[in-house]
Design goal:
By secondary structure, the protein is an all-alpha fold. The chain is built from three helices and no strands. Helices cover 74% and strands 0% of the residues.
Length: 78
């Protein structure tokens, strides 16, 4: 029971985290994590949550690197 509550807590935190990472990262990570979790002892849900969090972190890091390399131009002054 505690394990289920922990997984649901992590899933809700990942869902409401204010990041600009693409949703496709979460979906890709969740699918990969679910497959790995399933084969690693029938922990597909925990793997999906972990994969989603890891993929979102990866895409957030990647977006930050691109922002440093290619900064957005300043907004025009009126």
């Amino acid at each position: 029971m505690r394990k289920t509550i922990s997984i649901l807590t992590l899933a809700s935190l990942a869902a409401i985290a204010p990041v600009q990472a693409q949703a496709k990262g979460c979906v890709r990570g969740a699918v990969a994590g679910a497959v790995v979790g399933h084969y690693a002892g029938h922990h597909a849900v925990a793997g999906a949550v972990g994969g989603c969090i890891a993929a979102r972190a990866y895409y957030k890091h990647k977006a930050a690197q691109q922002a440093v390399q290619h900064p957005a131009p300043p907004p025009p002054h009126h």
